[in-house]
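Quarterly update, task 2.4: 2'-O-acetyl adenosine-5-diphosphoribose-bound model.
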Amino acid sequence: MLEAALEAIRGRRWERIVVFTGAGVSADSGIPTFRGAGGLWRNFRSEDLATPQAFSRDPALVWEWYEWRRGLVRAAEPNAAHRAIAKLERAVVVTQNVDGLHARAGSRDIIELHGSLFRVRCTREHTTGEALEPFGDVPPRCECGALLRPDVVWFGEMLPAAALDRAAQEIAGADLLLIVGTSGVVQPAAGLVSLHRGLSIEINPEASALTSNCDFAIAAKAADAVPRIVEGLL
Ligand code: OAD
């Protein structure tokens, strides 16, 4: 399938490339995915850790989990897939990931649908700020005294409207869509893919909810297959 996809992309000029990514693109950096073997939702209950109700009930517990995840990501490096995607200088990266690895790999135009582990938001003023370093004490507080929360989207919350709108526009207008490492089951993010009318190539070692609608589905790890596809595009 990789060869067939390479055949389809070579020798054509792609004007608008969108790369839509999920946790699987970071799996080869050692960051756990959410579903599947070893996935976070196999070992933790999302309703205890990733909902507004969980945060109201026990902000320290939620923050401990986020501090652990932030530590994993800080210690990780972008992998060959992130680096290859960054070589597509004009591509738009639409990611469900909160790990910041696309930016660390050098991608410039990144739409973060689910926020970032390295930003916080004041629960009273709704202002956001960068937060790269570990917090000594959790839960951290804003200067105004209110609790800070991770600036991520939790279950039951809306996605940032500007990010969602722009992602929809970019995907609808893309002539090539690469879908990397997502199970394609979380809405509304996964539903954006149905707006696409051009050629689509999925890279995922397992079948996903999006596989049957893709023109090519490459059953391989992101770090192995994405660099080959990008070479074919450059
Ligand atoms: P999932 O954990 O649902 O899916 C990860 C996908 O990556 C699966 O389809 C795996 O087969 C695939 N995968 C695993 N290893 C891979 C590798 N080395 N290379 C390529 N693919 C690989 O993660 P997402 O689809 O990102 O939401 O999950 C979507 C959302 O659900 C997340 O953004 C998060 C979660 O709950 C929020 O937190 C709002």
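Highlight for this quarter: The pocket of 2'-O-acetyl adenosine-5-diphosphoribose is lined by residues 22-24, 27-28, 33-36, 39, 50, 96, 114, 153, 181-183, 186, 203-206, 208, 221-222 (CB under 6 Å).
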